[in-house]
Amino acid sequence: MTEIGLFEALYSARALRRFRPDPVPEALITRLLDAAIRAPSAGNAQNWAFLVVRDPAQRARIGAIYRKGSDIAAAVYAARERPAHLTEAQWARMLGTGAWLWEHMAEVPVLLVPCLRRRDMPEAAALPPAIAARHAEELAYLDRIRGASIYPAVQNIILACRALGLGTVITTNHLRCEAEFNAALGLPEDVQSFALMPVGYPLDRPGPLSRRPVAEVAHADRWGAPWPPGGTP
Ligand SMILES: Cc1cc2nc3c(=O)[nH]c(=O)nc-3n(C[C@H](O)[C@H](O)[C@H](O)COP(=O)(O)O)c2cc1C
Question: What is the pTM of this model?
């Protein structure tokens, strides 16, 4: 298959949540993971791990946990307003395909679970006194940036799926039942999952992606000043 360009992938790699049951060749899964590990991570620690779940019994367990987490999400979404930038059709599509996945996660041929091994601070005693004095703040800083060491890898998987004719979506509802999820996968104590990504051949077509325009979300030099500075090009 001919590879698509980077920008074509960026502009069309939308959330695909409905899949054919056909298996995904192992070599393609490895290619996705090889793209994932090109991502940046804090301190280049590469403290990630990726679980590839294909076993039907495991997928059934994960599917049931995702369903349970999604029941909570459904209640939250029912109480939410449709964001003003989404049309009725876009909102209905997100909720509709989202609900499809609640029911069918276990049938998707591959469930990828990007994880990170916890990376703690050095002991306070090993630090210069001025830094040791702000040990708690450093721990809070680490917590604040933790996800940034795995979500770039997640986005690489999304783009690599697009390039290889596969579909995927980042989901997180399983984290509402995290202890059960971790037990099902046998995750070590110091390993956390950050996403659950169904991967397969999609029933729906990719892109185009519509988003709030740059002029609405970008600021020049200080919050509130328009970008581009000279007005819409
Ligand atoms: C942090 C995060 C969590 C998400 N969790 C879920 C989820 O649990 N289930 C789901 O179906 N989609 C989930 N999504 C996917 C979003 O709904 C999707 O990215 C968004 O609607 C944009 O879709 P589009 O790229 O097709 O326009 C999540 C996305 C992000 C970034």
Answer: 0.96
